[in-house]
Amino acid sequence: MLKRIQIQHLTLGMYLHEFCGSWMEHPFWRAKFLLKDPKDLERIKATAIHECWIDTSKGLDVATGTTSVSREEVDAKIETDFSRLEDLPPIQVSLPVPPPPVRNRTPTDMQGELKMAAAICVKSKKAVVSMFSEARMGRAVDSVGAQSLVEEISDSVTRNPGALISLARLKTADDYTYMHSVAVCALMVALARQLKLNDEQTRLAGMAGLLHDLGKAAIPMSVLNKPGKLTDKEFTVVRSHPVEGFHMLKEGGNVPDAVLDACLHHHEKIDGSGYPDKLQGEGISVIARMTAICDVYDAITSDRPYKSGWDPSESLRRMAEWTSDHFDARLFQAFVKSIGIYPVGSLVRLTSGRIGVVTEQAPTALTTPIVKVFFSTKSDLRIPPELVDLAAPGCNEKIVAREDPEKWRFPDINELWSGFAEKAW
What we know:
Layout: E1 2-6, E2 15-19, E3 33-34, H1 38-45, E4 51-55, E5 69-70, H2 71-83, H3 110-136, H4 143-159, H5 161-168, H6 176-194, H7 199-211, H8 221-224, H9 232-238, H10 241-252, H11 257-265, H12 286-301, H13 312-326, H14 329-339, E6 347-350, E7 354-360, E8 370-376, E9 381-389, E10 399-402, H15 405-408, H16 413-418
Antiparallel strand pairs: 1-4, 1-5, 2-3, 2-4, 6-7, 6-10, 7-8, 8-9
Helix pairs in contact: 3-4, 3-5, 3-6, 4-5, 4-6, 4-7, 5-6, 6-7, 6-12, 6-14, 7-11, 10-11, 11-12, 12-13
């Protein structure tokens, strides 16, 4: 049985099933293990993570009277919270910039935008690689070039938000550091649009997403891409990247203060347990709170050298568990609304027992995306792919469960939703 407990109640002999937080917040390259080493227990309690899941069928249970929460209780609360999202009024925030002229953009269909998004990803990766190389040599960021890149990404997300966001998630371990910047930029733009920010404010949010991790240019790639557990020293080096990036951007000039703030504070947490300044609540700027959400989502849905990315919809559920400690709850709600409860690429099961992958969001509802079904659980066989629009009149199908890609290991799941047989850049 799985139980969520406070880290302070963790003891030797318990089976650690999962940390309640991104793997970026702790130095352990794995989560599932029997806790036997006192040094491991000390290291866990020294991290900023407050809660974890234990499996009582594989290790010790908590002492009688100790507060714990079951998996079923947590799932029920998340389902209730997500079901209410459509009824929540939009929240409005503002960033400190003047309104710009309105730009016209023509919406495109998903497949059409995916082709354009692939080209943008190719161009963006080259630009970000160059940006990091310049930063390593102590040169200033090309703010004009960065702004142009943000505008291209912003236009794509405005035409069809699911395309570039989903495509940028498909990065290799070697691509990660660079394409992560592109992905977070796109996610920031989508969130800014959900928050009804104007064009200039949206571009400012996109710039924050593009530059938030520039400080990683100061960290050896051997540490960033290490396929195993980080040493305490290496973990400290990785955690230095917000301050390093802030100084790089500050010294280069021509970068808005809001972007500098997002770079410095995107690892702060609402409860004050983040870094580097342990800010909390509204002491963290809106743009930094936005960046924190987008940064974590892309990180946990992307494959890394030491860990496969989580399914998009499952990632949102896990982030929902951490919200009270990690994220601004209302901004997180807006984020979920911006990409959907079942983001593109999510593996789901329908009422009929067919399994499919989400290919596109419905324009008016969060729970009725378009799904490409391709497998029957009743016959345990692949079936000819078929698009099912859950929002279409007369459609009797609905999503009844999320499915774990690791369980099914469909080799072509990304090709099914993207249309690309290989990574598009």
